[in-house]
Amino acid sequence: MARRSITQLGENESINEVYVASSKQLRPNRQGNLYLQMQLSDKSGAVNAMMWNANEGIYKRFEDGDYIRIQGTSQFYNGAMQVIVSHIEKVDARDVDESDFMQVSPQRMDDMLKELAEHLRAIRNIHLRNLAECFLIDEALIARFRKSPAAVKNHHAYEGGLLEHVVNLIKVGKAIVPFYPQVDEDLLVMGILFHDMGKVDELSTDKGLAYSDEGQLIGHLVSGVSIVDRLTKEAEKLADEPFPEELALRIKHMVVSHHGKLEYGSPKVPMTAEALALHYIDSLDAHMHGFDKLLADDVNTDSRWTTYSPQFGRKLYKGGGEA
């Protein structure tokens, strides 16, 4: 019998399937009775799940990141799908086909890393190329970067998502540079590489997608600047000469300003041509990916419109059929 993926769930369906558990919490309701709240996911997406009348024993039956078999029923709540769970049991990872849960295959990650290396080694500025080389030879950083998601939700929220996001942005960035000669292509590529690099420390995939303690306390912008500082020191050793101070400042400015607005978490707004270009192509890639995901996950299968999206602040038009 074929497995039932998250995005295939319809209203009021009986479910007996294996998913990855994350973000579990044991909480009291208004009457003081405990219930279990968690997220279930597979490679197609994620859904919130609740188990009423839970207890400490059920809560300790599994950990975030474990495979669990759940029995329950799907339902719509506030325009979104959720699952009401009646039974949970932990499943041995050896009994699971991991390809059902990985959105980006290991081979695809290897291919994207190779493509990224080709872009970085094509950089003409010798200082920036040395910096890129220091990144490429840092095996520990590459290993974390290769697995990191780009977010916990909304866009590229899966292992390999950050790598995919960066490669997409470099290709978009290189495509627009001929129309904007004031933008330095090498500097833009380097800013794209490092703009979300701090997410290797901010986000964790060890127990499902979640924020690490460093992510909660510091955030990826500060962590990203620290990584740039460390690698520029390595580049100085490689070249046996100081790394140009202005180049370092411009890269770090792109990291701290790429959200675009102070209210979006950037301590600085874009003040260079490369920082401005990075902000807009980063937003474009994130929103277009979020658009595709919203349409794929939408529970309004019989409507031309999606449900309301908090990410976009609106419904989105799906089209289809005659007007």
Automatic annotation (TrEMBL):
Transmembrane segments: none annotated. One of its GO terms (molecular function) is hydrolase activity. Keywords: Hydrolase. Its EC number is 3.1.-.-. It comes from the Bacteria. It is an enzyme of class 3 (hydrolase). GO terms for biological process: rRNA 3'-end processing. Residues 158-296 form the HD/PDEase domain. The gene is yhaM_2. It comes from Bremerella volcania. The keyword Hydrolase applies. This is 3'-5' exoribonuclease YhaM. The keyword Ribonucleoprotein does not apply.
